[in-house]
Amino acid sequence: MNRGARLLLAVLAALIALLCALTIGPGELHLADVADVLAHHLGADRPGITPTAHAIIWDLRLPRALLAVLLGAALGVAGALTQGVFRNPLADPGILGISAGAALAAVLGFTLGLEALGPWITPTLAALGAVVMLLVLLLLVGARLEIATLLLAGVAIAAITSAITTLILAIYSERWDLGLRVMRWLMGSFEGRTWQHLWIATPPVLAGLALAHWLRRDLDALHLGADTARSLGLDLRRFYGLALLAIGLLIGASTAIAGVIGFIGLIVPHLARLLVGPGHRWLLPISGLLGALLLLLIDTFTRTVTAVALPPGVLTSLVGGPCFLWVLWRHQRRHP
Amino acid sequence: MAMITAPSQRVVRRHHRREPHRAPGSTRALLIALLIALAALACRAPAAPQAQTSARIASQTVLADELLWQLGPAVRARVVAVSPLADDPRYSTVVDQWPADRPRIAGASEALLARSPDLVVLASFNAPETRAFIEAHGVRTLTFDRFASFDDLRGNLRALARAADADAEAGVLLQQWDARLASLAADHSRGRPMLAISWGDGLVAGADTSFDAIARQAGLRNLAAERGLVGHVPLGLEQLVAWDPEVIVLTCEPLPCPEAEREFAQRSGIRATQAARRAGIFAIPAPELSSIGAGMISAAERLQARRIALTEPP
Questions:
Q1: Do residues B309 and B282 make contact, with C-beta atoms less than 8 angstroms apart?
Q2: Is B127 in CB contact (< 8 Å) with chain A?
Q3: What residues make up the domain containing A328?
Q4: Fewer Cβ close by (within 10 Å): the C or N end of chain A?
């Protein structure tokens, strides 16, 4: 099977998963109900739709499923991009400290009770945190923008921001509701996300995806080594700056909207490489599709397996961990 | 049931061992000086209480802050410290009532021991280290560990009254509570029972929670408990909408109660529920809904009044 066919198969799988996500869940709704609600919004007359069915499918499930697709794609592409930039298969988008910065800003908002001002406050604060972290990172690495400095500065920023988050929780340990909110946000969730969240997330994610796609040839050149890439005419400083911006947009937006969702960015590029090899022309779109598919399936599972709302961020780690071990084992068998 | 624990025997036991080696002269002198200093400090430390009546009571939980206040002036005068939550308007019904000279002290700390309490009131959700720390310093503790019913509330009050030698004051308080609960029970037949669910921060209260007791006392059926949920459980919004409750109970804060009800009724998904369409969103003050003290009775009174107003024929 060629790469195009594999890409098409991944698109089909994502569409089927989307349909499943809309049909499965509380309320005993069927495919016909889903079709009726969608047809109603496309202008067809469907008088039999109950308010509950409409609310569940249109107000809750559809924006949530689309958000899982969008943010899964963002995390998958951000992972492939990060591993390409650092030329390290263990690099995770979280390594740059951008998601930790977003998390810190959101936790500050919870501590000050700002989320009471509206549902848009936490995503806005988290996005601001991601942007500030990105600027701090650029300031720290300076004009030379060396990869080692970038990595070390990212690790340091992530450590500092995580420590401040923990410090805030320690200071306000008496406020159990704060601890609960922060913990649930840090575990990542699509619970209560609406069309409004989808509209907030779409522009930065699309910009990040477009930028990543634009950098695909530079990533392939870098895959041959920094010196070779330079000899091929790649301006490394400009490339690192743009790649950092793309990762910031993708990770910042996803953390701002859904909290911290781990492991998608680490494991998905490995699965994508198994399907289409290391070339970024195919690796980036397949990583996006697999990220979308994986996150959508995980969210559907956590939403439907029990009445208790499970955080998908925990399940991504539970699923991702063994997958990653399998990839390592496979790598060791091939390269003893 | 609340539990009273005596100070650990380890505190008063002394172990003497012979030194295996002779220390040099200067070191020996230093050790002797250190021992003398420690002995002097030990003499200053509070002795373990001999009597069971507590003269100096410290509270480490908001339930005790409330109960000690309600037991009246004689008991209040013996309180030497309260918990920081006593002044938190989201949890406490005695905000700003305790005078400023009763320090608000959190957790096991030197500040708490410095108040020389002979009884510290805790809850089972306080850290075990806190209780161990307090008992290791020879202080009696009383631990509340049941909070899910009005019987638990009565039991906690009686245990506190026993420990604080305030049985008479507790008797009066219990009479008042029982009269209010009887009045609530008498009105159960008015209107009709409604299916209700509590909602806060994505959590619902199932069986074995204070909300379950409040709801039943208010003539409501707790939907989460009927669906088999126990304790406080995170529930998906989609599941809540699919269950379609007649009443959704939430806290008002930080908005005024009517505004909180309006805002919640307009949320995505929620606006399709029976509760939102038929004025069944009941917002009540947070300290009452989250109360495990007398606020539970106030919450039940509010909910019953709303239920009757909604279901009783005019």
A1: no
A2: no
A3: 3-334
A4: C
